[in-house]
Design goal:
alpha+beta; 4 domains
């Protein structure tokens, strides 16, 4: 599900890896005297500048300029600081794939501060605050869209919050044992100090100016309450362009991640020529209902669209977009189609019961962490979410205890009704089916749809589930797919230039937000279809700097490479054979031991070596020619075990000619759900069984000289429930059910099909 970082600091805390070898002198006694500290900070800033210039001889990137502009401003080098902000924007635009026009307002409050100081030095008799009051409205009038949102963002913070940030930074430095700071700590302290001296004098007045600016340009309805069919009220933020008096199409997001920035998000929608609406889901923002994720979105979104369609400012056309849960809520809205809903753009859409809170039948511990993030309060508890140390400790405590998965919330110290409710529905039953379109309901969805997901998006399975089911039940579905080398966040904005260690091709650096609104212009205003959408399926082929286009998922590839699991040794591994073999492989796993399996890591796609802990590895011969993988690999695993069930993990990796390993695709699958998620079918101990598994979709050029690697194992980690194979409800099994070790025989006619084009 969606991961979001919440922080007051608008500065990026750029840290150099070699910074700990440098020392900056800062006497502790100065920290107790605010006047002495004010006078000494320029000295520190000059020391940092000298160290940066010495340490970083050639690399002039966002990291460098993010450090430099702050200390230049503190040192009184205001013109140079502004130049560094411009360089930082340029570097950030390039490295993060953000359009230059969108990033113009980024760090504007600091450039405004520098300009004020330069004007005072030039003899302007006005006070700093008077110049600020004169200049900020001019800045705001000359920005629009995301650039305007960046410029306005600082004024959403409170003086108390800014003061708290400063006091935390000050206390941290005061507690050190010496009169020196490592360079990285000195940079962070300088950045916190600059934020303190810049925000403090301007924040209150800036809020007034932004409020006045908003009122002159927008009609803002915050906390509008919309009544649902059962009498519950949902809160919506509605923003309209004050200059437009007639009805317009509406673009809406249905959001469980309620926050105080929703007006800015709605204003961004307005900048594209639409009425902007952020509908907060049941129980969020100022709704006083119970928070029950997933359960009411189908009815609530329909009722909200019905209300919107009847407003004088709506022209009868509503479009929706958003990612993760916000992608799900769009599909929920199509369970019963409202005539005013004209298009949806689900990005990295989660599918309840399909890929969350369980994935191919396997529940994740992350689900509990997510529940607390969205249900602890009426907004979103990102402090809870980002408390990684707590969650790692809690999940490891459960894992090492050997207790049943249904005790996870109690071990965390907070029994959770929602978590327990989910665990009662391990199959894709009516509880989950009522949340999104099911079977024939997809046939009634006749609006244009644009699905966006990524090769490294944990919600790819959900996104492609909707896509496949829509085309399965509605052969004439007007449904496009864009999929590329993106992670979860990259599908919802501007993809990073480097994703989990992999530098994406230039053509993959698509401005997703721009694509979304091009789609709305196409579907809601009769504009041109986005250029990227050459065909129904649009996928980026990693390593070629090209996009591929196909009429369907089945036509993405035109052939397969077939491999079989062989018991023949290939060095310390087994061989991926081109023919069936009689040599089988025996594997033994003792689930009473806490030995984690570590085969694939989507957060580190490139590695110098292959992690084989807890699994078995099969390696192909060296490829004698280039190939292009396009699609999802499939595995038809033929096996027999001594228990009634197991949770399989499989990973497909390429070892490049330089020896580096790149994770292409992976999957986890509960064997008893491998032939269908609606009904569990247990394995017969000792019987030969077929377990079909489908990997994640990917596309990449594989150069000759590479080897393809398949790894197999059984899940045993703190990240998922542990299947002990008794055949009972897995969430109720504990280490006491481990019994004798799991004995697996992988047969030589197990087939791995890799799609190529």
């Amino acid at each position: 599900m969606k991961r979001k970082s919440a922080t007051i600091l608008i500065l990026l805390l750029f840290i150099f890896f070699n910074a700990n070898s440098q020392q900056i002198y800062l006497p502790k006694k100065i920290l107790a005297d605010s006047i002495a500290l004010k006078n000494y900070m320029p000295v520190i800033a000059r020391q940092i500048i000298n160290n940066l210039n010495t340490t970083i001889q050639e690399k002039r990137d966002a990291e460098y300029y993010g450090c430099l502009f702050a200390v230049q401003a503190i040192a009184g080098k205001y013109s140079e600081s502004n130049q560094s902000v411009d360089s930082l924007r340029s570097a950030t635009s390039k490295e993060s794939n953000l359009p230059k026009e969108d990033i113009l307002g980024y760090l504007d409050i600091y450039q405004t501060y520098n300009h004020i100081k330069l004007m005072r030095e030039a003899g302007d008799p006005r006070s700093d605050l008077d110049i600020f009051k004169w200049s900020l409205p001019i800045v705001l009038e000359n920005l629009k869209g995301q650039a305007l949102a960046y410029a306005i963002e600082p004024y959403s913070h409170t003086p108390a919050a800014i003061e708290s940030e400063w006091q935390q930074a000050l206390t941290k430095v005061q507690l050190r044992q010496s009169d020196s700071l490592y360079l990285d700590s000195a940079i962070m302290f300088a950045q916190a100090y600059l934020q303190h001296i810049v925000y403090n004098p301007f924040l209150s007045e800036g809020k007034k100016i932004v409020f006045k600016f908003d009122n002159s340009n927008f009609i803002i309805q915050d906390s509008t309450l919309i009544t649902m069919r059962d009498g519950v009220k949902l809160a919506a933020v509605i923003v309209r362009d004050r200059k437009i008096t007639g009805p317009q199409p509406v673009v809406m997001m249905s959001n469980i991640y309620a926050n105080t920035e929703e007006i800015n998000t709605a204003k961004e929608i307005v900048s594209h020529g639409y009425v902007g609406i952020i509908l907060n889901t049941r129980g969020k923002y100022v709704s006083d209902a119970s928070i029950e994720p997933w359960e009411h979105d189908a009815e609530d979104t329909y009722d909200a669209i019905d209300w919107i369609s009847k407003q004088s400012w709506c022209n009868g056309k509503v479009g929706m977009f958003g990612g993760s849960y916000l992608g799900f809520s769009q599909w929920a809205a199509t369970k019963k189609m409202h005539p005013a809903l004209k298009t949806i753009v689900p990005q990295a859409a989660a599918a309840p019961g399909i890929d969350f809170p369980m994935h191919n039948g396997i529940y994740s511990t992350y689900a509990l962490r997510w529940i607390h993030t969205v249900t602890n309060n009426r907004l979103s508890d990102w402090t809870e979410f980002l408390n990684i140390a707590h969650w790692d400790t809690s999940f490891n405590k459960w894992y090492k205890s050997g207790k049943a998965f249904n005790s996870l919330d109690s071990i965390d110290g907070r029994p959770n009704i929602i978590f327990q409710r989910w665990l009662k529905h391990p199959s894709y039953d009516k509880y989950w089916q009522k949340m999104i379109p099911y079977q024939q309901e997809f046939s009634k969805i006749n609006i244009p749809v644009l699905t966006i997901t990524g090769y490294f998006d944990p919600e790819q399975e959900g996104a492609l589930y909707y896509y496949k089911e829509h085309h399965r039940w509605n052969p004439s579905a007007n449904h496009y797919l864009v999929i590329g080398p993106y992670d979860h966040g990259g599908t919802q904005g501007s993809p990073s230039a480097v994703v989990n260690g992999y530098s994406i091709d230039e053509v993959a650096k698509v401005d997703i937000n721009k694509l979304v609104f091009q789609w709305f212009d196409f579907t809601l205003k009769g504009g041109a279809k986005p250029d990227l959408l050459k065909d129904t399926v649009n996928y980026q082929i990693m390593g070629t700097n090209e996009w591929g286009h196909a009429a369907s998922l089945q036509k993405v590839n035109n052939g397969f490479i077939n491999f079989y699991l062989s018991g023949t040794n290939e060095g310390k591994y087994y061989k991926l054979a081109l023919q069936k073999t009689e040599k089988n492989i025996d594997q033994q796993i003792d689930l009473s031991h806490r030995t984690e399996i570590k085969l694939s890591d989507t957060y580190n796609l490139l590695s110098d070596s292959l992690d084989t802990e807890g699994g078995i590895t099969f390696v192909s011969d060296i490829l004698t020619k280039d190939i292009t993988i396009a699609g999802s690999f499939t595995a038809q695993l033929v096996t027999s075990i001594n228990k009634k069930d197991m949770d399989v993990v499989i990973a497909l990796t390429v070892q490049q000619p330089d020896g580096k390993c790149f994770l292409l695709s992976s999957a986890i699958q509960r064997a008893s759900y491998s032939k269908g998620s609606r009904q569990r079918k247990l394995l017969k101990p000792g019987a030969k069984e077929l377990i079909p598994i489908t990997g994640a979709f990917t596309s990449k050029k594989i150069v000759k000289g590479s080897k393809l690697i398949v790894q197999l194992g059984v899940l045993n980690t703190p990240n998922t429930e542990i299947n002990y194979g008794t055949g009972r409800d897995v969430a109720t099994e504990s280490i006491r059910d481990a019994g004798s070790p799991l004995q697996i025989k992988w047969f030589g006619d197990s087939l791995i099909q890799i799609p190529i084009k």
